[in-house]
Each structure stands twice: as structure tokens, then as C-alpha cells.
Amino acid sequence: MARYASQVNTPRATIGGWISTLGSRAIAVVRRTDGEVRMVLGGVAPVPWRVNPSVEEDLASAPLAVDDLEVLAERAMYDAQPLSGNAYKVTIAKGLLREGMAFLGSGT
Predict the structure, then answer these.
(1) 107: enclosing H helix or E strand
(2) Residue 32 pairs with which residues in a beta bridge?
(3) With the CA atoms of 54, 23, 80 and 64 taken in that order, what torsion angle do they form, in degrees rounded to the nearest 10?
(4) Can you tell me the distance from the alpha carbon of 81 to that of 37, in angstroms, rounded to the nearest whole number?
(5) Looking at 2-16, 25-39, 87-101, which range is the least confident one?
(6) CA 59, 65, 68, 70 torsion: positive or negative?
(7) Contact, 9 vs 19, CB < 8 A?
(8) For the chain, how many structural domains are there in total?
(9) 6 in a structural domain
(10) Residue 32 placed within a domain
(11) Which domain, by its residues, includes 75?
(12) Which positions ≥6 away from 47 have C-beta within 8 Å?
């Protein structure tokens, strides 16, 4: 998988930002200096898709175990409603989410 480091502009200063791509699917992850987390998926919906704020809050609250990341990835995609022939995007999105959450957990 190709990874590209890039600056992520947010209204507040950031501690770390990360972008990962898988084909035409992508995730952007940011931890702000105030501790808040933002995660946005691209290429899985008609518009960039922000992860549920409750999942972002859980990520910001404490270090999480690998099993916790799996549960959060599932929860983040709970409301996903793939179109006919697009169910594979949910699986790809979960993988990108796990990678993004692992990045946040690495303290980077």
C-alpha cells in the first residue's frame, strides 16, 4: 500500500496528521493539540465521509488495545449502507480505519 505524508489543514493546530491510500480509497487522521481526533474517509461514499464523532471521542480518550480498534472500526461502519456491488468498500474502509487508529495509538 502506498503511503503519502501530507499536511492536513485544520482550524486548530495539530500534533500529527496521516494520510493512507488503498487504490482510490483514502483516510485522513488528525490529532489536534487540544486532544480531539478527526478521521475522514475518501472514496467510499459520494463525498468525504467523516467517522462518527463518538468513535473519534473514544479514540481521543485513552490508549486502546488492538481488540478495541477492531470494535471501533466495526462501530464506525455500523451505519454504512453500501450500494449494490459496493459492499467491498466497507471492508476496505474498516482496514483503513484500523490503520488510522493504530497511527493515533502509536503516539505519533
Answers:
(1) none
(2) 14
(3) -30
(4) 24
(5) 2-16
(6) positive
(7) no
(8) 1
(9) no
(10) yes
(11) 14-105
(12) none
- HSE at residue 63, side-chain half, CA atoms within 13 A, is 5
**CA dihedral sign, ordered 107, 33, 80, 42:** negative
Radius of gyration of the chain (CA): 13
H helices of 4-87, in order, are 53-61, 66-76
Please check whether residue 40 is in contact with residue 51, taking contact to mean a CB–CB distance below 8 angstroms: yes
* Residue 74, in any domain of the structure: yes
Each residue's pLDDT tens digit, 36-77:
888 888 888 888 888 999 999 988 887 778 888 889 999 998
**Run of H or E including 29:** strand 25-32
pLDDT of residue 1: 45
* pLDDT class of 5 with cuts at 50, 70, 90: very low
Q: What is the pTM of this model?
A: 0.75
H-helix or E-strand spanning residue 19: strand 14-22
Ramachandran angles phi, psi of 85, nearest 5°? 85, 0
